[in-house]
Design brief:
The structure is a homodimer of 251-residue chains.
Chain A (H helix, E strand, L loop, with lengths): L4 E4 L21 H10 E7 L4 E3 L7 E7 L2 E6 L5 E7 L4 E2 L1 H6 L5 E4 L3 E7 L3 H7 L1 H27 L2 H18 L14 H8 L3 H13 L3 E4 L2 E4 L2 H7 L14
Antiparallel strand pairs in A: 1-2, 2-9, 3-8, 4-7, 4-9, 5-6, 5-8, 10-11
Helix pairs in contact in A: 3-4, 5-7, 5-8, 6-7
Chain B binds a DNA duplex (30 and 30 nucleotides) through helix 7.
Chain lengths: 251, 251
DNA sequence: CGCTTACTTGAGTCTGGTCAAACGGGGTGG
DNA sequence: CCACCCCGTTTGACCAGACTCAAGTAAGCG
């Protein structure tokens, strides 16, 4: 596993935050931008496979994803792994550790990533001086909770095929929202092992389920990852509806 | 199903909030108490089986549990149910709906419950005037996220027996913390159907797994629910450790 | 060219699901 | 007071979805 991490002082200014151009994200006021700019400590640039945060450690930072894909997971002592969610641009990670001390999960990059780094000790200041931003942080935490509820429903109660369809549809929907699926050839950069560890299935059975879904013409698999061919049919198969309100806070 | 709901103007004053006597909860300042007292809208008293909040609805309130047990769940269109977590005294419910509009899950009572009712529209005021309380709200949301991660790990990666052991140990731990297990004869007031819907198993297989765990002498089952005989062994079997820091915020 | 990583596929096994039936306690109406 | 019913639990028989083991392929890389 090649792991490379670069700490850049400041490549992106908050005033020209790459997230702001996306219209699902709410705009920040001048004043909020100024504060965020002080809150920001730098940037973290990492390769695919690198660990952003590790279970059991105390990290003095929290991050907002600016570019790239990653996933959040937990391990059992014997090595069994459960991926609990995926992270994408606009997602805040490390909040748990920030509030409660030690990290209870790890985060790993699925592609090269750039993250915006904040000092966790400044959180209280944020809550004091910028109630709206504090509200946004809570909003973001609440959204994560919502996604976890969905994932739990899926792993607990859907069949293998439905689970897979849900996972792909869900990740595709989120990725599209933040502009990760712009190009025609875009794929979700995961391996079948990732899928298995997300769905709670074995690798072999995951492979067979993926074949089935591919034969139905809803997805295709390449070395790079998963290509989504028919998001609507996937949603239907999963008995799931993407909610298309949108405009959410970030940072 | 007998459903009874009573809205009492004010039986418990915030100044003598029954949660404050528990030492795991942090104490509020005079000023915070005064604010909470204004924030509070009344109390909701309901029977076992009654629905506190329903998926798909917009509810103008959020609640903190004062007494009793409940559970949070989601449904698939065909009726399959997944219980995502249990709620106990000190838990805040309805925050998601409060921030994001419609409820994405339902909450049902497992015993008679008393809930402290707040107006969701006042949330912004809370964030403006009481940053510490706002921070606490976020802390609480973050804790819920943490529990969901654990539950997901369990449903996704543990065997049926480990899952059951984890569930019982986890619920027992939480219940003990908030004083629900005071008496020798205390049971967790759930049916095997609840267990099945939490673990993602069928009722029949859940029953057989419960028998196995009971034969090992770790639990016993009665009409009233589940009695915990050996919490340590349960934790061990589940490869799980309760974290014993404690002192958390509430409301 | 050999090695590694990721995907595939088949065979055999077992965990967990479905179907069906029965039991026991508590509540209810005759 | 008794018969009946309902709910939750229990058990057995049988089936299927998912797991393990094993082997083989294909692409990428040093």
């Amino acid at each position: 596993m090649t792991v490379q991490a670069t700490y850049a002082e400041r490549t992106y200014l908050c005033e020209t935050c790459p997230l702001m151009v996306r219209k699902i994200f709410r705009n920040l006021s001048e004043e909020e931008l100024a504060f965020m700019s002080r809150f920001k400590r730098g940037e973290l640039t990492i390769d695919r496979g690198a660990t952003v945060l590790a279970e059991g450690t105390k990290n003095p930072h929290l991050y907002t994803v600016l570019f790239g894909w990653g996933f959040r997971y937990k391990l059992l002592p014997d090595g069994r792994r459960q991926i609990v969610n995926y992270v994408m641009p606009g997602d805040l990670i490390g909040l748990q550790g920030s509030l409660m001390g030690e990290m209870q999960h790890s985060v790993e990059a699925l592609s090269p990533m750039v993250l915006c780094m904040f000092e966790r000790s400044k959180m209280l200041t944020l809550f004091h001086d910028h109630p709206e931003l504090a509200y946004d942080v809570t909003w973001i935490a609440s959204r994560e909770e919502c996604m976890l509820d969905e994932n739990l429903l899926s792993v607990g109660r859907r069949t293998a095929l439905e689970r897979l369809a849900y996972l792909i549809a869900f990740v595709f929907e989120r990725a599209t929202d933040v502009g990760l699926m712009k190009e025609k050839a875009s794929v979700i950069p995961i391996t079948q092992q990732h899928v298995a560890d997300t769905l709670g299935l074995s690798l072999v059975h995951t492979n067979k389920t993926i074949r089935k879904l591919a034969n139905l013409g809803l997805i295709s698999w390449s070395e790079k990852g998963c290509k989504v061919l028919d998001p609507e049919k996937l949603q239907e198969l999963a008995h799931w509806e993407a909610d298309s309100d949108k405009v959410r806070p970030f940072i």
